Amino acid sequence: MMGSSEVLIKARGLTKRFNSFTAVDGIDFEVCSGKCVGFLGPNGAGKTTTVRMIYCFLPVTDGELTVAGLDVKTQDRQIKGLIGVCPQEDNLDPDFSVIKNLQVYARYFDIPKQEATKRAEELLKFFALEEKRNAHVESLSGGMKRRLIMARALINQPKVLLLDEPTTGLDPQGRHLVWDEIRTLRKQGVTIILTTHYMEEAEALCDRILVVDNGKIIQTGAPKELIKQYVGKDVLEVEYDEQMVQTLKQELPDVEVEVFGDQVRVFAKQHGSFEQIIKQFPDKNVTIRNANLEDVFLKLTGRRLRE
Questions:
Q1: Could you give the angle at the alpha carbon of 285 between the alpha carbons of 279 and 290, nearest 5°?
Q2: Alpha helix segments (H runs only) across 98-198
Q3: pLDDT 10s digits, 290-300
Q4: Which of 99, 116, 191, 280 could form an SS bridge with 106, CB 3.0 to 4.6 Å?
């Protein structure tokens, strides 16, 4: 197993343009072996484009990008052998059974038939799909299809697993099952790159976060560090009340108050800052919660809806 401090993926000035549109704008980043790194950003920020360049699906326009020391521009075949990809879309073959999807996919990596079947059986067990071994794909639930796509991504025993919004559309039970599987893979030494719109997913799984917007990396760090830096400890949420807002600003001058329509959010650096204030407004329906990564995301990228 590679050392966890070894840089496995390295980008310098990485750029991708589609005609006059720059989707990825000269970004630098590194991913160390055995870590889970999350790419977060609004729709169109450049996350998926970056991931597609890593697995050589899209050519690089400019800059440098290497995977395990291999250049994506000239050594794409070798890189594809090192990477497993779980795309956003369901691209399973509907004409094949569950296990046949894995066996046929293994041919792309020149895995011998007997070995491919052995790996497929092990992956079906790992992803709790044994009972569906001979079922056709179309009979699977959405959660089962996502797990099968992840199993297929692992058939070549990759060093790097790229997960592009792997739990979109899953119910909470299915999502947490996938989370458990991701944690297990990370413990086994697989390097994971995750794109997601679920902030709690990134907070639960990722060692490090890269926040992407308008094709640039605007911030990076461990989830807890980013929360501490940009938000603090506690968040108070309440329906807008002018008197309460003024009281908060006067008695807690260090807190940050943000008004969104008829709602107010107040961010405090320390736990327990709000108790004395809310006692003065006993009729108000107040929520106090821990700060989270979604607060950070909205602070960095704004609240405007992206197309």
A1: 85
A2: 98-106, 113-126, 142-153, 172-187
A3: 999 999 999 89
A4: 116
- How far is C-alpha 159 from the chain's CA centre? 18
93-122: per-residue pLDDT in tens?
999 999 999 999 999 999 999 999 999 999
d(CA 294, CA 39): 13
d(CA 183, CA 243): 47
> Which of the listed CATH numbers 2.60.120.400, 3.30.70.260, 3.90.76.10, 3.40.50.300 matches domain 232-291?
3.30.70.260
Is residue 206 within 8 Å of 37, Cβ to Cβ?
yes
Task: Please state the domain extents for the chain.
Answer: 7-223, 232-291
**Strand, coil or helix: what is 212?**
strand
- Parts of the chain with a pLDDT under 70: 1-5, 303-307
Give the distance from CA 306 to its chain's centroid.
Answer: 18
pTM here? Answer: 0.88
Report d(CA 254, CA 194) in Å as an integer: 35
Residues 45, 61: Cα–Cα separation, whole Å:
17
Residue of 183, 189, 193 whose CA lies nearest to 2: 189
Q: Tell me, what's the pLDDT at 1?
A: 37
